[in-house]
Design goal:
540 residues, Rossmann fold, 2 domains, eight-stranded mixed beta sheet, two-stranded antiparallel sheet, 11% strand, transcription corepressor activity
């Protein structure tokens, strides 16, 4: 259709084709490309969507007559909102800020032009205006949280900064019985008043970015690593050839982003993906939500004299569950198998008897919007890598791991990364989970920035020389940590079989930023976040 109108443009215009109709065709094609990207995670579709949307913007297809016709103005508003989403995912921050300014201006102009009165047959209804005002507020809040400081380093896997998959250390065959690759991911987040734009929350956005290849080093080629006054990256001419991914790299893992899913929708998506998962594939399930309970929780008041933290981390990688409070679950340390639960639990730890859940909707809706640990058990017939960001993450440790011990897991043991059960104070006075996103997710996707946030460093007051030095030391430390794990004879096969995947390996190594001692002293794991030193002292 697009080719036809290009070849016959003059005849079509003479027959009455309007410019805005050409723009609408291009906008629908752009939306089709974006939808195909969301289904396949193929970056070329996202680039094609950007090309069509950018052409609409530069050629001003919707400008003529937009303030005489509300329907036409509404089409332009929808176009700007869709283009904003594409630019966010493609990390075109300069264009994002340009579009936000245009959206603000257009909404204000529409309010003045299409006031409700007897003279306007089609008036801007008050509800329409409030909805577009909300769209503007959402994107402004999103950009305030996802600042240039949070994007100093690309979240996507960049061969400029990260090791090429071909040079990752080899895991010995006896330890890793098979080699798995991340093929699919299910990403879902819901918190009250969380930062989001449309149906893309800040947490799922960061995870989405972290599961993609950085195309041809375009982050540095187009941005130059500089920030503008408005927080956007420095300007330079757009070269779409920079968006072409390295053909030697495997394709991006497919990602299903679910916004406030019902339980039936969530299970249906999981079932479809598991059905299509190849034999060497692993499915990542990322869930970020507040916890809900429908029963009782037992609080353990042990003496706190359990296994020390140095032994904890070694045990974590000999087991298949990692928890940020310093405990792990294995057949030797399960509360159900231990005669003295306090011996394997720290003081204040809780065990939920399969009554806790993650709340993905209003609490008044009952179990329809709740995801329980037992809901995941049928899908453990395939390899799962589960990340839980919640104050109820302990429920998944107690439930899923105990299922594994009792033999209820159906063929595969799931790998678990669990956030702390409690929140930690963020150093900056204006920073909170509602304003910057979930802390555990930030540690997984941008560990150094997360560390800086805890120290109250948020970008404007950072010393770039010190930051670059810290980045260099962190990168070196993570590479050493990865080598130690790959060459260890005691790593549990659940971890060993995914260490060769660059995306999952980066998640595993990122949790090393939570260590309170160097890894050489015993691979110490700590979830206490007792960091009171300055950044410069810490890197040394």
């Amino acid at each position: 259709m697009w080719k036809f109108q290009q070849e016959n443009r003059q005849k079509l215009v003479e027959a009455g084709l309007k410019r805005w109709e050409i723009g609408e065709i291009a906008s629908r094609i752009g939306q089709l490309y974006y939808g195909q990207y969301m289904r396949t995670s193929e970056a070329s579709y996202l680039s094609e969507a950007y090309i069509f949307y950018e052409a609409i913007l530069t050629r001003e297809y919707f400008k003529e007559g937009s303030f005489q016709d509300f329907n036409l103005a509404n089409k332009q508003l929808r176009f700007l909102a869709r283009f904003l989403m594409v630019c966010l995912v493609l990390n075109r921050r300069e264009m994002v800020h340009q579009l936000v300014n245009q959206l603000k201006i257009l909404v204000d102009e529409c309010k003045r032009t299409f006031q409700i009165n007897d003279c306007n047959p089609v008036s801007l209804q008050d509800t329409d205006f409030k909805e577009w005002k909300l769209v503007v507020q959402e994107i402004v809040r999103f950009l305030k949280a996802d600042t240039a400081f949070m994007n100093i380093r690309p979240l996507r896997y960049s061969l400029v900064l990260d090791p090429h998959p071909d040079v990752l250390p080899h895991v010995a065959a006896p330890v890793a019985r098979k080699k798995l690759r991340l093929r699919d991911a299910v990403l879902s987040s819901y918190h009250h008043n969380e930062v989001k734009f449309s149906e893309l929350t800040l947490d799922t956005f960061r995870m989405l970015q972290c599961l993609e290849w950085e195309p041809s080093g375009s982050f540095y080629l187009s941005a130059g690593g500089k920030s503008g006054q408005n927080g956007a990256l420095g300007s330079s001419p757009i070269n779409h050839s920079q968006d072409i991914a390295d053909p030697t790299l495997p394709p991006n893992p497919r990602k299903a982003v679910l916004y406030r899913p019902s339980l039936t929708h969530f299970i249906a998506v999981l079932a479809t993906i598991c059905e299509e998962l190849p034999p060497d594939g692993v499915l990542l399930v990322y869930l970020s939500a507040s916890g809900g309970t429908t029963g009782h929780t037992l609080s353990l008041s042990g003496s706190g004299t359990g296994i020390n933290t140095a032994e904890n981390l070694t045990r974590d990688f000999q087991s298949h569950t990692i928890h940020s409070d310093g405990t792990s679950t294995s057949s030797m340390s399960s509360p159900s198998n231990s005669p003295n639960p306090s011996a394997s639990q720290k003081k204040g730890d809780c065990i939920s008897y399969h009554t806790g859940c993650l709340q993905f909707g209003n609490r008044g809706s009952g179990g329809l919007n709740c995801i329980y640990p037992s809901d995941l058990i049928p899908f453990t017939r395939r390899p799962l890598f589960i990340i839980i960001e919640s104050d109820a993450s302990e429920v998944f440790k107690a439930s899923v791991s105990n299922y594994a011990i009792s033999g209820a897991e159906k063929g595969e043991r799931a790998a678990l990364l669990l956030s702390p059960n409690c929140s930690f104070p963020i150093g900056s006075s204006d920073a909170s989970r509602h304003s910057v996103g979930s802390l555990f997710t930030i540690f997984l996707t941008a560990p150094l920035q997360a560390f800086c946030l805890l120290l109250g460093i948020s970008g404007s007051d950072i010393e770039m020389d010190t930051y670059k030095h810290a980045e260099s030391l962190l990168s070196s430390s993570l590479n050493d940590w990865g080598l130690k794990l790959a060459t260890s004879d005691n790593v549990d096969p659940v971890w060993a079989q995914i260490l060769g995947d660059p995306f999952l390996r980066r998640f595993l190594l990122s949790v090393e930023t939570e260590l309170d001692q160097p890894i050489e002293s015993g691979w110490t794991w700590s979830g206490q976040f007792n960091w009171s030193c300055t950044l410069d002292e810490t890197v040394h």
